[in-house]
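Anyone able to model this chain together with 6-O-phosphono-beta-D-fructofuranose?
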Amino acid sequence: MPSRPPRLVVISNRVPNPGDKKAQAGGLAAALLDALGDSGGLWFGWNGKVGNVYRPDPTIGEQAGITFATMELSRRDYNEYYNGFANRTLWPLLHYRLDIAYFDRQQYSRYIEVNRLFAEKLSPLLRTTDIIWVHDYHLIPIAAELRALGHKQKIGFFLHTPFPATEIMTALPNHDQLVRSMFDYDLIGFQTEKHKRAFLDYLRYELGAEVTAKHVELDGRRVRIGVFPVGIDADQFKRNGADAESLVWHRNLRRQHGDTDWLIGVDRLDYSKGLIERFRSYERFLAKYSEFQRKVTFFQIAPPSRAEVPEYREIRHELEAEAGHINGRFADLDWVPINYINKSYSRAQLARFYHESRVGFVTPLRDGMNLVAMEYVAAQNPQDPGALILSRFAGAAEYLDGALVVNPFGPDGVSDAIAMALDMPLEERRERYDSMMAAIEGNDVRKWGRTFIQALIKIRRDRAAK
Ligand code: F6P
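re: yes, here you go
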């Protein structure tokens, strides 16, 4: 009989509500739920609520053989750890936005304290035979905190965001303390070769670590480093996209927006997504290629996010002004050039929107991967697919060679790419689609989960314990 895999413990800042049906949960969550289900696993983290209790105990629930242990954050932890160091310091820094990164020693201490608190609350729930998978920048030092409590299990870390160039990283006070704590992991994963290379450069030139083909070593501690690109549930987007044509919803939308070609952008309302630059490029396109006026409609869907962080509030106002400006300049009684929508839609609805759009418009200034780019492609009609415009600074550009790759900082280049996408002959669209689909289907999100977990299980420690 095949032996049961070790129990998987996932730790992430945000944990999906155990009540979420798989189909509704995001692709990543669904992949993790699969992996957790296979091993009767445990998912630990924040439940998204803010309360008054200082150091609350986790609430334990079970769903489909998976244990969920989630806890509230106190108002202070929420302000200083989540809104503070995680999202006002690390997030901008990891996305190359030193100009808006806010450094505050108190917030850094709180970040470490919350990582310690999570480790302490998780500790009694752990078994010695578990393997532990930590996600993202909120929880970088949690392995060190778990080790301090005596835990010797294998622990892996996956960074969903980019890792920046050394010159950016070193602007963070305490950067070396934070990165040194990563040597308490057994395996560290990145989305792309570029992010991995930036990390290795930092380790080599800043910390003087020894970098070999297999691992990195610092002060006698070894970690393996790998690239594990996140993928999507391609089948789901194919299926949902194909549903589009049969829908009343679709017919109504078409009636409303006439016979125009659609461009679609879907992003959390975040400055890293390059929305202002995207709007300005679209404006440049309408002015430069005036023959397309009245023939295109741009939908930008941007659900609000992290609204208590000031920089996120500001970008919302800026975008409203910019969209109003473009419509003021070009709109007519029967044509609205840009529809800027601050709402979220289900994955099925988005797939239908993608399917219906001639151009996927994905131009982040920096992005770990960007799954919208892949979802757009997967939802296309293979016989008559649309074209994808993709920022060179999205991790996905390393994998989607059929995209029109652009520099999002240059409105002229982006506006030329829009015209090219709209004029692209069917044969070329199909060729590009086929090559992108091969990459997307060859690396679906379940493969990502399995590959990382297998790599973690396979690690052989040279020393008895971390
Ligand atoms: O890596 C970025 C990320 O943490 C994603 O995993 C997630 O979709 C997004 O940010 C949501 O952010 P938040 O939890 O702050 O709403």
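The two ends are 31 Å apart (CA to CA).
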